[in-house]
Amino acid sequence: MFEISELSVIAAQMETSLKGKVIAQGSLGNSPHKFVWYNRSHEEFAELCQGKRIGNARLMGRWLGLDFEPRYRMIFGEMGGKIILHPKGEAIPKRYHLLLQFEDGMALTVVIGMWGALELYKQGDELSRAYIKGMATTPLDPGFSQDYFLDLVAGITAKGKRSVKSLLTQEQTIPGLGNAVAQDIMFRSGLNPRRNLQELGKLELERLYHSILSVVREIKDLGGRYDETDLFGKPGGYIRLMDSKRKECPTCSAAIQTMQYLGGACYFCPVCQS
Ligand SMILES: [Zn+2]
Asked: Is 164 exposed, middle or buried (0-12, 13-18, 19+ CB in 10 A)?
């Protein structure tokens, strides 16, 4: 699944490589998929796309908006898979869930893995959509300061018990993060996924804050995680610290443990993370 860092790489690449291109033809794909969310019929989408010019790309957590000028905005949301720009003449995938063919002969395809939203809105209407509406500050926003983070956690712990993994991955409390980046953030901050936020001291909270920022920025700077690809099909350069391939802790060599917790596997070091 794309998380905020990969989408920020793709958004920047869209700005440099897609902006200004005119759509000759758009299609919502040739391969039905139960978990691709569309908000337009095939006919409507094709009609609305035709002749539109690609404008700005904007990042909203795990949601990416791409302007179709005038007046429309394509949304790529909560998705896993591939968003690829194909040079003129390059073969496109046999099965795809979105295809934009540009007047200059280039093409953009989207192939969705498990799930994702591919929706076209009048600019501004996407802000009423569930998950985009009222989105909180993301770790790549300038407002994600240490004070903001400490206030956020104080507000949560005043209401009741919540774990570190829940803070990082549930309810878009910190939009843009997913299971993959959460593993490395918890490892770098030395916290067990089940650890109750109410028990964390100021130093632990500060370490958690800095781990969020450093992991998210490092993944972005390295062009995404190694198991995701960018707009040109190139894998990212960030090697995950904690995933299914990791057998030993990179710090203390203890055997990595796995547990199912809050919608997905957690990989953690029983020694370094408490
Ligand atoms: Zn360890």
From this structure: buried
- Residue 204 Cα to ligand 1 midpoint, Å, equals 17
Q: What is the mean pLDDT of residues 142-162?
A: 97
Q: 259 alpha carbon to ligand 1 midpoint, in Å?
A: 16
Task: Give the predicted TM-score (pTM) of the model.
Answer: 0.95
Q: pLDDT by residue (tens digit) across 86-135?
A: 999 999 999 999 999 999 999 999 999 999 999 999 999 999 999 999 99
Q: How remote is the CA of residue 243 from the centroid of ligand 1, in Å?
A: 14
- Please give the pLDDT value at position 264: 86
Domains of the chain from N-terminus onward: 4-128 (3.20.190.10), 146-268 (1.10.8.50)
Q: Which residues contact 82 (CB under 8 A, 6 or more apart)?
A: 109, 110, 111, 229, 233
Instruction: Tell me the residues surrounding ligand 1 (ion) with CB < 5 Å.
Output: 249, 251-252, 254, 269, 271-272
